[in-house]
Amino acid sequence: MKDTTFTTLAGLVVATMSLFPESATAVDGFADDVAFMKEHTDVVLLHHGDAAVAVAPAYQGRVMTSTFDRNTGPSFGWINRPVIENGFLSEDERTGKLEEHIYIFGGEERFWLGPEGGQYGLFFDPGTQFEFSDWTTPPAIDTETYELVEQTDVSAKFSHSAKLTNHSGTKFNVGIERTIKLLSPQEAADQLQVELGDDLRVVGYETDNRITNTGENPWKSETGLLSIWILGMYNPSHATTVVIPFRSGDEEELGPKVNDAYFGEVPPDYLRVEEQELFFRGDGTRRGKIGISPERSKGIAGSYDAAGKVLNIVTYNVQDSPHGFVNSMWELQDKPYAGDVINSYNDGSPEPNKPPLGPFYELETSSPAAALPPGGTMKHVQRTFHIHGTEADLQPLAQHLLGVSLEEIKTAF
Fold this sequence. Notes:
Pfam families: DUF6786
Organism: Rhodopirellula europaea SH398
Number of helices: 8
CATH topology: Beta-galactosidase, Chain A, domain 5
Distance between the termini: 26 Å
Protein name: Lipoprotein
Keywords: Lipoprotein, Signal
Signal peptide: 1-26
Number of strands: 18
C-alpha cells in the first residue's frame, strides 16, 4: 500500500480496535493454534514424523502455521485469532470495518495475485482512485474457499476458478491450482543442498502455485498481466532480523540494491545495506517494506530469531521473465512491469499512538508477469524452511545459504 493512503487504514484500525486486542499478538504453540482454528474453520493437517503444517481451505488453501513438533513445538505462523473467531461477516457487518477491504486472518504462506495497484491493478475497480477507501482485496484471494481435490498425509491439492477485472477494465478468467507438500528432512536438505544433522529440528514445505488462462483471449502486456504473489506472516521479535543476499554490481547496470520506497525510506536503524546482503528488522515495531529486483535476486531470503535459535529460509523457482514483474505501486505507472521479485514487510504503528495491524513481519516472493495464451499456465513454487538448533549447528547453514554469519546477523543493528 502507498504511504499516503495508509493513515486512512490506521484510522479504520483504531475505529475497530476490538479486532486487535493484546491477545492477538501473543505467540502460542502449534497445538494450541490448531485447536483454536479447528473451533472456527476446517483445518487440513499435514504431518511427517513430528513435523506438521496446518492448512485452511476456507482461506484459499493458506498455510496457517507449521512446526517441527506438532505436540509441544512452536507455531511459526502469525495467527490473528480475533478475526478468525469473528469469521466472515455479512455486508452490513463489514461496513466501516477493515473487513470491508480485507480479512487479515494471518497465516505464514498465502496465495495472492498481483499487481495490487497501478493501471493494471486488481485491488482497484475501474473508475476508482488509488486511495484506501477504494482499495478492496478481490474475493478470490480473500473470502472464497478453495476446493480440496487431493490429500495424503504429506500433501494437499486445491483448485479454484476465478473471474477478475483490473483497473483498466480487462477481464480475466483464471484457473487456480495450489498444492502444499510437507518435505521430509532429507528432502529439505536436498532442496537447500546442505547437510541437516540429527541435532537440528526442521520443518520444510513447498507450495506449487499455478494460474491458467481459462478465457478465450490471450493476456497481453498492453491490457495488463497477472502474477502469482506468495506472502507469509511470521511472529516478530526484538531478536529477529531479516537477511536477503543479493547480487553485487553497478547500479547503472543492475539498478538499486534495494527498493525501500513503498512506505517511505526505511531508517538505518531498521535497514542496513551492504555490498552483497541487507539486514532488515523483523520486530513488528515500525512499518516498512523493502523489495529486491529480479536482476539482484539470488532466489533466497531468510531471517534469524536469535532468541528462539531458529533460522528461517524462503526460496522460489527462479525462471525466465520475458515480460518482467508486475508493479504494485498505487499510481499510474510509467513502468508497470518493473516490479520486485522478493519483498519483506515489517509491521508496526503507522504513526504515534496508533496500533499495528498485527504485529508481524513478512517474507514474500512473486512470479514473473504471466502473458498467457488461452489454456496457458504459469507456475510459481515457493519453499519455506524453519530450522532450530544450537548456534554452532546453525552457523554453517547461515553462512552457506545467506552468506553471513550468525554473529553478523545478531550485531547488524
